[in-house]
Amino acid sequence: MRKPLDPPEGADEASHLVLRDRARRARRPIELPSRGRPVLTFRMGDERFGLPAERVCEILPVPKVTRVPGAPSSLRGVANLRGRLLVIVDTACLLGLAEGEGERLLLVVEHRERRRGLEVQGPVGLASIEAPPGPGGSDGIRPGLVQEAGIVGILDLEVLLGALAESGEEDRR
Questions:
Q1: Strand blocks (E) in 2-133
Q2: Which of 24, 34, 79, 152 could form a disulfide with 48 if both were Cys (CB 3.0 to 4.6 A apart)?
């Protein structure tokens, strides 16, 4: 009888060992920062940004996105995420930044009881805010001192996504 960690019939032994190692590492608990408020940090172009960790539901590779005719440029489109439509926001465009090179990731966030996908440039890291974010500007970015990354722009989802929601643009499908 096959044990749970034995390779399946006909499986490559090396591939199985790699997958087993990944599974072991994934089971380890995430160590949250001991001080301050946890934030997820990421890059957009040459700048560093952060989001309060409690606002992020998932981090995923960017799925296949379908453009929506007539949608503003800050809305990349919609994607099917486990049978549900998810609005994908082009974070660089929303912030008025040029798109950078490198890995793209999707941060799924909760905003006004709806999930939205923010496309960001990876990698994503977990850090803590040492100094509370400063007052927010009308652009939705507040300065914050993050332990591992220095000064980063902490994104205010209410300001950034609120403008899209209030205009009704993100709900046109």
A1: 37-44, 47-52, 56-61, 75-81, 84-90, 104-111, 114-131
A2: 152
Q: What is the pLDDT of residues 35-66, one digit of tens each?
A: 677 888 888 877 888 888 888 999 999 999 99
Show the tokens assigned to 137: 């500007």
Tell me the CA distances in angstroms from 40 to 27, 49, 147, one per residue in order: 20, 8, 12
SS3 (DSSP) at 133: coil
Q: How far apart are CA 110 and CA 42, in angstroms?
A: 18
CB 89 within 8 A of CB 106: no
In which band, very low, low, confident or very high, does the pLDDT at 132 lie, cut at 50, 70 and 90?
low
In 3-state terms the chain splits into helix, strand, coil percentages (rounded to 5) of 20, 40, 35
Q: Are strands 150-155 and 47-52 parallel, antiparallel or unpaired?
A: parallel
d(CA 19, CA 13): 10
Of 3.20.20.80, 3.30.300.30, 3.40.50.1980, 2.40.50.180, which CATH number belongs to 33-171? Answer: 2.40.50.180
The pairing of strands 84-90 and 47-52 is unpaired
No. of helices (H) and no. of strands (E), the chain: 3, 9
